[in-house]
Write a structure and sequence with these properties.
The chain is of the alpha/beta class. The protein contains 13 helices and ten strands. The strands form three sheets. A five-stranded parallel β-sheet has the order 5-6-9-4-10, with helices on both faces. Strand 7 and strand 8 form a beta hairpin.
Length: 334
């Protein structure tokens, strides 16, 4: 697939966008013409509509990258236990600077216990790079076609998540997160991870064929982030295609920083938040630091609600939900 015409942003740290074709319109037109001449249009109406939508949208998508190596200090503060991964992303960004090369990031595998912020990290990276993010949860998935699409010969068939991200999305280089890749249930006849063997290799990903659309898609620019709790459940050929990073729970000091950042974030996102104290109390941070980052946000929203019910604009330790058995004060849900 081709790319052309850099569109540079002003030197304000904004992304540089390069237009890149993610499929060949000629291939789609030939497929559509063949279907129309066969007289089976009604039988394959969904497939026909898919090809027509591809032609209407056109093949070109934005391939974006930062206009310079961005200031990532806020991310290091927000994600203190992801320092090595952030270093790796920064290296890839630096390599693509001062050139017409697209940003290429080696697929990333984040290993760590639940709740340490692996999915949150992926969202932050997408924001940093100026692209979109798609999440594919493997924990309850048994069908391999979720990634690669299902054959148009099957009832209820449709394109896969990779096709949706590239053809229906705006970017040629979205972040695609394969969440809990170690939970994928491999079946004897169809491996849910089978399509990753080609998708995680740059050369073969350039001509990835969705089984529904049957048109080559350029998925070589996709930024892959996978998460897992146990790497032993991941096939070696897939694990060897990725840079592996072990993510430990944050230290107590780091957890306090994360909690304080979340407090300021929630407060700033809501009009009612402006009435609350700009910073949380130390004893509140001490309690929040004992929780996983995933739980901190829910605990804070509950605490804000409980404080407001008591006509206060300052969170106190008793406003936080208790850990363990026993009744919890009920606050607002988000």
């Amino acid at each position: 697939m081709s790319s052309h015409s850099l569109v540079a942003s002003p030197s304000l740290g904004l992304p540089i966008a390069q237009m890149r074709s993610v499929f060949s319109a000629d291939d789609v037109e030939r497929k559509l013409a063949r279907l129309q001449s066969s007289g089976n249009e009604r039988e394959h109406e969904v497939l026909r509509n898919t090809w027509q939508r591809m032609l209407e949208r056109g093949p070109e998508r934005f391939a974006v990258k930062p206009s310079g190596v961005p200031d990532m200090a806020p991310l290091y503060d927000l994600l203190p236990n992801f320092g090595e991964v952030l270093d790796d992303v920064k290296r890839h960004v630096a390599l693509s600077q001062d050139s017409r090369d697209s940003l290429e990031v080696t697929p990333i595998l984040l290993l760590g216990p639940p709740g340490v912020g692996k999915t949150h990290f992926a969202r932050q990276i997408a924001d940093l790079l100026g692209t979109s993010m798609s999440l594919v949860s493997m924990s309850s998935m048994t069908a391999g076609w979720l990634l690669s699409g299902s054959s148009s010969q099957w009832k209820g068939s449709k394109p896969g998540k990779v096709f949706e991200a590239l053809v229906d999305g705006q970017y040629a280089n979205p972040v695609i997160v394969i969440d809990e890749i170690d939970k994928a249930a491999a079946e004897a006849q169809y491996d849910p991870l089978g399509s990753l063997y080609s998708l995680l290799e740059h050369d073969t990903a350039q001509s990835f064929v969705d089984e529904f659309a049957e048109v080559p898609i350029d998925a070589s620019q996709v930024i892959w982030v996978t998460t897992a709790n146990d790497e032993r459940a991941i096939p070696d050929p897939i694990r060897n295609r990725m840079n592996v990073f072990e993510i430990a729970p944050p230290s107590p000091d780091a957890a306090r920083k994360i909690a304080a950042h979340l407090y300021r974030g929630i407060r700033g996102e809501h009009d009612w938040g402006q009435r609350f104290e700009p910073e949380p109390a130390n004893d509140v941070l001490d309690l929040l630091a004992t929780q996983a980052p995933r739980e901190m946000r829910r605990a804070l929203v509950t605490a804000f609600g409980n404080a407001r019910l008591d006509n206060r604009y300052r969170i106190e330790p008793d406003d936080l939900p208790r850990n363990g058995p026993g009744k919890t004060r009920i606050g607002f849900l988000q």
